[in-house]
Amino acid sequence: MLDTLRRIVQEVNNAPDIRSALDLMAQRVRDAMGTEVCSIYLRDNNEERYMLMASEGLKREAVGRVSLGTSEGLVGQVGQREEPINLEDAFAHPKFHYLAETGEDPFHAFLGVPVMHHGEVLGVLVVQQRDARRFDQSEEAFLVTISAQLSAVIAHAHASGVLFDQLDTQDLPSIHDGQPGSTGAAIGIGVLLFPETDLSSVPDRDATDISGEIALLDEALVRVRQEIRDLAERAKKSLGPEEQALFDVYLRMLDRHALPAEVVARIRDGQWAQGALRMVVDAHVHNFEMMDDPYLRERAADVRDLGRRVLGQLQSRNRRRIEFPKACILMGEDISAPMLMEMPEENIVGIVTTRGSRNSHMAIVARAMGIPTVVGAQNLPLKKLDGKELIVDGFRGRVIANASAELKSQFEDIIAEEKHLLAGLEKLRDEPAETEDGQRIALQVNTGLMTDIVRSIERGAEGVGLYRTEIPFMVRDRFPSEEEQRLIYREQLSAFAPHWVTMRTLDVGGDKPLSYFPIEEDNPFLGWRGIRVTLDHPEIFIVQVRAMLKAAEGLNNLRIMLPMITTVIEAEEAQHLIHRAWLEVREEGVDVEMPPVGVMIEVPATVYQARALAQRVEFLSVGTNDLTQYMLAVDRNNRQVSDLYNSCHPAVLHALLHVVEQAHQEGKPVSVCGEMAGDPSTALILMAMGFDSLSMNASNLLRVKAAVRQVNMTFLRRLLNEVLAMDNGEVITSYLDLQLTKVGLGDLVRHRKPA
């Protein structure tokens, strides 16, 4: 039976469209179970009915026309109970509802199981038979199993908006989930980006003139290289040196000893230039897409984009002119960084891709440009949305099509409120983050891109609580040299002097891989990452620390922070290497003080060793994103369990309070540099706990400062005691919003939950 199950799932997944998939599903299940009828009823939430969408054994003309209410008949009963119903004689059941149009008169035995996805009933899978009998346990188990296996196919069709096309519901609102690539919200007209040149359509042909084909390739490469250089020059206006390094990666891929060498080899084997290009690009794209490493998979988009550009030059075709409306939402399967830079920046209000991740080159650039972005919206029907009005919800990673007037109005209010609120908060730039009764807290920023500097200073940041040093590593195809790192770090340190700049040492692994330093693991979040990598490679660690120390000469505002610390021994080993690097640069004549060294509290082990660590370092900083993930055993990038990820979970709050108490008993400062620090609701709770500073994205700083200045510590401590007594994270979140709204902070906290 297992082989039968695998075969059915494979066939259904390979069906050309959802209609074919449903028909195939009904046919294969009926045959496998040896029954006379298999039918699939799918729930139409807009009509609150179950529609007969496929059947083998009932009248064909009933498919797409017959439906039942969600509480009607045995189908409705299965959906309501969310469990199988197995009846010897369906006609005798009080909930049986006869449908003459289906021709089900002869069939007595009934077995129905719900089709469920993420806790939601999507439909009901039914088998029927003439003989009055109860289906046995193995048959029931098989139908439950096949329903669970095939639920993803149906969920995809629901999300894609193709399921009820024949019912004329395509203009109803549809919400498509992805991942936040860049926060913010936008409303605009979708513009689908696709290449005119189609590599997959290039045929194989024998080269009649090998030298001539190579010459054509060389000419095309010259033009494409110049095209990339021109784009890089344009990028200087809006991107910093780190982001511009993306274009250097493209040029290296176009180096004669890289991809072009493989194409030339194919040509010498007798293939014409276009066919040789297709073969090489397809091979590299396939290899990248098969990799487990998410960052390396992103390289497939880069190779595909370069292949299209070279093919376009080989074919000497003019590119189609794209009309960009004033408020434009760029859409595509992949949108590479160079493609983005070709677009008119002033027209782009949002970006959506069906592939990619938060670590894609495009997402990095989008964040630098401040464009709300959603990536990985797998179920988005791109071709249907070209030219349609869309809403990009970069806060929650959603794309909304065919929005109702009410929903659109709600997002218009959110966008307007954001602009108005930020404009009104500008006056707080030079004011302290101080409560009404005089309690101050330092508000710092998390940075990583050069473009963060201007935004941070404009909002009055009191230094940098987290500088992500891995970004200069991620945008290159090799480790940056000590001097390259020194120049980057110097710019950060100089911009914020005399305030502290806390630089986290290289934190790769998990969801932050390096293409040139692959880490292949079954469970990367519990594997070789952060300090574990750099302690195993002291040559990388020492070079980075030397660059930091040299960059701090004459400024002395550097703090060094160690990520993913699990044991006291790791902290001591890292401190030893830092001290060694400090002695080295001092011997070289660099006059720099030994910087304070701290550790990140982001795994449960360090929560309970916080005091021991505080005895050995100068400061602690809590990374609430990873701490929440590890305490709750929830991958924050996994949409299937995203509802379980909640930083207001009681266990997380009590852990945070414990860290503060332990650090302060040793007289050491402790800060937060995770997402909780940038949310006004949780930021105030962190302040009540006693955290000395909060570090956040620059866009949230003024909002948090405004919240701090409108409350007093008596109120905050009472609120903290109330939530610490609660045992449900969702209740805590709602309670915080309610209480802060009551004291006039509704405008500051409401942005957390756009429609």
From TrEMBL:
Domain of life of the organism encoding this protein: Bacteria
Keyword Metal-binding: yes
EC top class named in words: transferase
Residues annotated as domain GAF: 17-164
Subcellular location: Cytoplasm
Cofactor list: Mg(2+)
GO molecular function, one term: phosphoenolpyruvate-protein phosphotransferase activity
Record gene name: ptsP
Annotated family: Belongs to the PEP-utilizing enzyme family.
SUPFAM superfamilies listed in its UniProt record: Enzyme I of the PEP:sugar phosphotransferase system HPr-binding (sub)domain, GAF domain-like, Phosphoenolpyruvate/pyruvate domain, Phosphohistidine domain
Pfam families in the cross-refs: GAF, PEP-utilisers_N, PEP-utilizers, PEP-utilizers_C
Catalytic activity: L-histidyl-[protein] + phosphoenolpyruvate = N(pros)-phospho-L-histidyl-[protein] + pyruvate
InterPro entries: GAF, GAF-like_dom_sf, PEP-util_enz_mobile_dom, PEP-utilizing_PTS_enzyme, PEP_util_C, Phosphohistidine_dom_sf, PTS_EI-like, PTS_EIN
Swiss-Prot/TrEMBL keywords: Cytoplasm, Kinase, Magnesium, Metal-binding, Phosphotransferase system, Sugar transport, Transferase, Transport
Name of protein: phosphoenolpyruvate--protein phosphotransferase
Main location: cytoplasm
PANTHER family: PHOSPHOENOLPYRUVATE-DEPENDENT PHOSPHOTRANSFERASE SYSTEM, PHOSPHOENOLPYRUVATE-PROTEIN PHOSPHOTRANSFERASE
